[in-house]
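I hope you will forgive my troubling you with a question about protein structure. The matter concerns a single protein, recorded as an amino acid sequence and a row of backbone structure tokens. Please examine both parts with care and let me know of anything in them that strikes you as inconsistent. Thank you for your consideration; the sequence and its tokens are set out here:
***
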Amino acid sequence: MKYIKILSLLIVGFSASTLVAQQDPNFTLYNFNMNIINPAYAGSNDFTEVNLAYRSQWAGVPNSPNTQTLSYSRPLKNNLGIGLSVINDEVFVLSETDIAIDISYKLQASEDHLLFFGLKSGGGFTNVDLTKVGAPENDLLFTANKSFFTPHIGAGFYLKHPKYYVTLSTPNFLNGKRYEKQGNAPIAVINDLHVYL
């Protein structure tokens, strides 16, 4: 039985034609970082929220992934809410800082259910430090940093009940290839679509 499982895993692994990796920062508990992934969460509580988070993966390993986040959220008048999020994510040669503003609108769906709709707008400042790769000094493709700005537009829904909640969101609708190249040099960063349920 053990050999059948191993053989099955190998067949599935070698038959995969496309592998996709995560691009957005990784959070252990999304419910404490809801404002970052779902703009509908902005102002959904009856109080102002400020969250700070720091995540370091593989502590002690040089250039390992680490993420710092700051999010702010508060309710406004007329069933509106506003939020702000700043994310700094670093992995090896890639450093990205995303800044976004969220606005949400609240509807009373039933006696116990509140439904929030949210929009997110912002952008990401990406820096690729190619000098960290360790290529020979005479390789022109690895002698300078590359910096890009990418706009972000996202949306989300948040159904809130005293005993549970359901969310559906994407922090960024704009998608495409991770790097656009001109010749061999990267000239822009475009993120793939991420959907959170």
Summary: The mean pLDDT is 83. The longest helix spans residues 2-15. The chain has one domain: 24-189.
